């Protein structure tokens, strides 16, 4: 079945009891069992699993072409569960440009679990190979492509081949692309991670995270056990909202991408814009790789405003339709000066604004950007 069809139907069997086409939300925290704990319908306690979450996990696994999925209360809960289940003494390679949360997790928390991290330029296969061959090597590699917020593109198949040849596992944050545009498991990744808070939910109203595993193997069992014990599960209502959102994911992504392409073209020729980071532009250094591994180029972009930090803040402050807000992947277009929200040690350039292109009419968005940049 094609992706658009899977998105509409996976995990969507009509309710067995009533025939309802929309799935019921099971809010029960506990399920009846026999006197010796015998399960009657597969469920026991909500921290381990529940029928609404099961449906979502079935749909997520189908969309990423994985064997199994685990849903979490947030993207960070998913990321943390996976990375903290690496054995103590492991070395993890992470990208130079990546979501701030990963950087903070790597610096402040993973060392307590005996996990060492090293930042590597993932867009440079030779640098990754060198890191894998140095010292005691690496046990796992984390990719984020396109990356947040600089839209760097990594060749997933190339890094997967390097990882395989050195016995390391490859994990990929697919939040920006979504499976509608890119399926890392088909390119050799072992696990895909999502902040479903973004495009899966799609409406800026539900938080969640997910891991999708290429195989239902020991790694899957270890992380499932960790989630059960440490409790980073998704609430049933949030599972339901996420499932509802993903039904329209491929359709929304087409519109998001078409809008982003037009906006990238507009910004690329604007005198106030020093540079545009969008993999769909032929001038982007990762364009060829993105064209090979993505169906379309996504709806996240960032741009650098000529005149530095002050000019970037002035432009962001002049927008009328586009909101200044964090997060991404919703119907509404959002802009953010990332350096202002990355904590004490920001890594984003001070003149950079990140744009999550929404589903409005693109001419209205371009008009708003044009007036904001006209100062
Ligand atoms: C690429 C990426 N990964 C992970 C996360 C973390 O997800 P959450 O906010 O759902 O915990 C984010 C959040 O912005 C993100 O942009």
Outline the fold blueprint:
Blueprint: H1 3-9, H2 51-63, E1 68-72, H3 75-83, E2 91-95, H4 100-109, E3 116-120, H5 125-133, E4 140-144, H6 156-165, E5 169-173, E6 191-195, E7 209-213, H7 218-230, H8 236-246, H9 249-268, E8 273-277, H10 287-293, E9 300-305, H11 308-318, E10 323-324, E11 334-336, E12 352-356, H12 362-372
Parallel strand pairs: 2-3, 2-4, 4-5, 5-6, 10-11
Antiparallel strand pairs: 1-7, 6-7, 8-9, 9-12, 11-12
Pyridoxal-5'-phosphate is lined by residues 74-76, 99, 101, 144, 148, 173, 175-176, 195, 197, 207, 209, 327.
Structure description:
The protein is α/β, with parallel strands linked by helices and 375 residues long. It has 2 domains: 3-246, 3-Layer(aba) Sandwich (Aspartate Aminotransferase, domain 2); 250-372, Aspartate Aminotransferase, domain 1 (Alpha-Beta Complex), CATH 3.90.1150. It has 12 helices and 12 strands. It has helices spanning 3-9, 51-63, 75-83, 100-109, 125-133, 156-165, 218-230, 236-246, 249-268, 287-293, 308-318, 362-372, and strands at residues 68-72, 91-95, 116-120, 140-144, 169-173, 191-195, 209-213, 273-277, 300-305, 323-324, 334-336, 352-356. Helix 4 (100-109) links the parallel strand 2 and strand 3 (116-120). Helix 2 packs parallel to helix 8 (236-246) and helix 5 (125-133) packs parallel to helix 6. The mean pLDDT is 97.
């Amino acid at each position: 079945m094609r992706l658009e069809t899977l998105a509409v139907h996976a995990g969507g069997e009509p309710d067995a009891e009533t025939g309802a086409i929309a799935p019921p939300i099971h809010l029960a925290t506990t399920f009846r069992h026999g006197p010796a704990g015998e399960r009657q319908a597969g469920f026991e306690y909500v921290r381990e699993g529940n029928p609404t979450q099961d449906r979502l996990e079935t749909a997520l696994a189908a969309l990423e072409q994985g064997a199994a999925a685990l849903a979490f209360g947030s993207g960070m809960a998913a990321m943390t569960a996976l990375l903290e289940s690496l054995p103590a003494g492991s070395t993890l390679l992470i990208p130079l440009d990546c979501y701030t949360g990963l950087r903070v997790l790597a610096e402040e928390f993973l060392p307590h679990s005996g996990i060492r991290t090293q930042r590597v330029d993932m867009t440079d296969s030779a640098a990754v190979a060198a890191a894998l061959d140095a010292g005691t090597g690496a046990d796992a590699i984390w990719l984020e492509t396109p990356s947040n917020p600089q839209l760097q593109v990594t060749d997933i198949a190339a890094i997967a081949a390097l990882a395989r040849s050195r016995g390391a596992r490859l994990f990929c944050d697919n939040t920006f692309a979504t499976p509608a545009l890119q399926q890392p498991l088909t390119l050799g990744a072992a696990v895909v991670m999502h902040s479903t808070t973004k495009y899966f939910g799609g409406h800026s109203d539900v938080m969640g995270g997910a891991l999708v595993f290429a195989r239902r193997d020991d790694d899957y069992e270890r992380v499932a056990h960790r989630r059960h014990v440490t409790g980073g599960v998704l609430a049933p209502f949030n599972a339901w909202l996420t499932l509802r959102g993903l039904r329209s994911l491929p359709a929304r992504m087409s519109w998001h991408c078409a809008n982003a392409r037009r906006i990238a073209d507009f910004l690329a020729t604007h005198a106030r814009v020093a540079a545009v980071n969008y993999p769909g532009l032929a001038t982007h250094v990762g364009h060829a790789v993105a064209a090979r591994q993505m169906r379309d180029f996504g709806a996240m972009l960032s741009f650098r405003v000529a005149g530095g930090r002050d000019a970037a803040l002035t432009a962001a402050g002049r927008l009328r339709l586009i909101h200044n807000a964090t997060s991404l992947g919703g119907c509404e277009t959002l802009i953010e000066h990332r350096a202002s929200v990355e904590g004490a040690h920001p890594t984003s350039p001070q003149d950079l604004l990140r744009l999550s292109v929404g589903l409005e009419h693109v001419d209205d968005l371009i008009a708003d950007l044009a007036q904001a940049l006209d100062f």
